[in-house]
Design a protein that fits this description.
- There is one protein chain.
- The chain is mainly α.
- It is about 50% helix and about 10% strand.
- It has ten helices and three strands.
- The chain has a three-stranded antiparallel beta sheet.
- Strand 1 and strand 2 form a beta hairpin.
- The N and C termini lie close together (about 10 Å).
- The chain binds fe (ii) ion.
- The site of fe (ii) ion has 7 residues, from helix 1.
C-alpha cells in the first residue's frame, strides 16, 4: 500500500492574501508530495511495514526496524503533520473559537488574546525548521509547545496536537521572506477554529472512554482515531 498525498480541501489561492497561491502549490504539491514519496521509498526494503498506515508507523515507532526509523520520523512525520495542517486552515477561517474550545482556551491561558500572544511567541521562537502546536498535554490540559523538524508532540512529550503551525521557511518565504512574525499573524486570519474544536471534542470523547485507564497508554489509539482519516 503506497502512501498518497491527500487533496487540499480548498484551492491554492483560497487563503490569499494571508498565504499566497504559489506557496500553497509548492508546499502541497512538491514539499508534502516529497514527504510521501520519500516515505514510500524508505519502505521499499520493508514489505511487512508497507501495509501499515502512516499513523500506524508512527505510533509503533519503537518496534520498527532501526533502518526504517529515520524515514518514518522525518518523512512520515512530514506526511502526518502536513495532512493535519491543511485541515486547520480555511478561507472562512480566522476570528476566535467558540464553544468548548473557547472555554478551555480561557481556562488555560486566561483569554484568547493571551493564548494568541503565547502561541505567536512559541512559533516565533522555533530556531530553524519546526512547528508550533496547541496540544492537549498528558495532564489533559491545553498547552502550547514546539517541535523541531517534522517531530510531532505525541512523541516528543506525549501530548495530542489539535492545531499546528508550520514555521519551516518553505511555508512562508516566498511572500514573507525573513518576516516570520507577519506570517504567524496572517495564519491567525485563516485558522479553521471549527476544525480545531472538532479535534478537541474527539479527544475529550476519548478521555471519557478511557478515564479509568492509563491516559498515556491510550493516547496513541486516540491519535489514530482523530487523525486517522487524514492519511492513508
Ligand atoms: Fe511544510
Amino acid at each position: 500500500m503506497a502512501h498518497k498525498l491527500p487533496a487540499l480541501p480548498y484551492d491554492f489561492n483560497a487563503l490569499e492574501p494571508n498565504i499566497d497561491a504559489e506557496t500553497m502549490m509548492i508546499h502541497h504539491d512538491r514539499h508534502h508530495q516529497a514527504y510521501v514519496n520519500n516515505l514510500n521509498a524508505g519502505l521499499e526494503a520493508y514489505p511487512e511495514q508497507q501495509e501499515m498506515s502512516a499513523l500506524e508507523l508512527m505510533v509503533n515507532f519503537d518496534s520498527l526496524p532501526e533502518g526504517l526509523k529515520p524515514a518514518v520520523q522525518k518523512q512520515g512525520g512530514g506526511h502526518v503533520n502536513h495532512s493535519m495542517f491543511w485541515t486547520i486552515m480555511s478561507p472562512d477561517g480566522g476570528g476566535e473559537p467558540g464553544g468548548l474550545l473557547a472555554s478551555e482556551i480561557n481556562d488555560a491561558f486566561g483569554s484568547f488574546d493571551e493564548f494568541k500572544a503565547a502561541f505567536k511567541a512559541a512559533a516565533g521562537g522555533v530556531f530553524g525548521s519546526g512547528w508550533a502546536w496547541l496540544v492537549v498535554n498528558s495532564d489533559g490540559k491545553l498547552a502550547i509547545t514546539a517541535t523541531a523538524n517534522q517531530d510531532n508532540p505525541v512523541f516528543t512529550e506525549g501530548s495530542l496536537p489539535i492545531l499546528g503551525l508550520d514555521v519551516w521557511e518553505h511555508a512562508y518565504y516566498l511572500k514573507y521572506q525573513n518576516k516570520r512574525p507577519d506570517y504567524i499573524e496572517a495564519f491567525f486570519n485563516v485558522i479553521n477554529w471549527d476544525q480545531v474544536g472538532k479535534y478537541l471534542a474527539m479527544i475529550r470523547v476519548g478521555e471519557g472512554v478511557v478515564a479509568m485507564q492509563d491516559w498515556a497508554a491510550e493516547k496513541k489509539a486516540m491519535l489514530q482515531d482523530f487523525l486517522g482519516s487524514l492519511t492513508d
